[in-house]
Amino acid sequence: MRRRPLGRLAQALGLMTHALLLAALLVGTASEPQSAPEEVFSKVATDPIPACGPGRTDALANGALTIMPGQTVCISVQARGDSVVPVAVVSAYTPDTTLVIRFWQEPEAGDTYLAVYNPLDGLLQYQAAMRLPDSLLPKHTSTCPVLSRRRGIERWPHPVATLVLSDFKLLADSASMTCQ
Question: What would the pLDDT profile of 43-58 be if each residue is shown by its tens digit?
């Protein structure tokens, strides 16, 4: 008599175990108050993509975007190999070609946030330089890759006067999600 492997049963039991663990985790943390950054991340994760307004054409120069708190800038982009070329600031959103970048400061905590909405079919990496309110010179800050057709959120626990985003590129699907 041949024994049949319990593959499907084991998979089903494994999925049920994972679901029960996840439910226990959610119940256990639901009563705990969220910190201010967690509340912001939760809200931004469920918000629709911000509307593109009248574009600040001067925000984009030589492939670099300069953005200040309180601004949302929409940029038409083209993927050329692994390079992502910012073409122009636009006032209308097109799902496959518009990179939407929102930069703001939370008034209560003073934390600064950046949300990047990636319209492309690949991991989007970029470089960022920040200028702090008490400085004239920008300095490099790390950024994390943004998943394909998703939003990425960056946070700094202090005010930032200006961000300059540049060197946009697509990473290979096998690339690490390491922040650089």
Answer: 777 788 999 877 788 9
Q: What one-letter code names the amino acid at 96?
A: D
Residue 35's pLDDT band (cuts 50, 70, 90): low
| Domains of the chain (ranges, CATH numbers) | 57-171 (2.60.40)
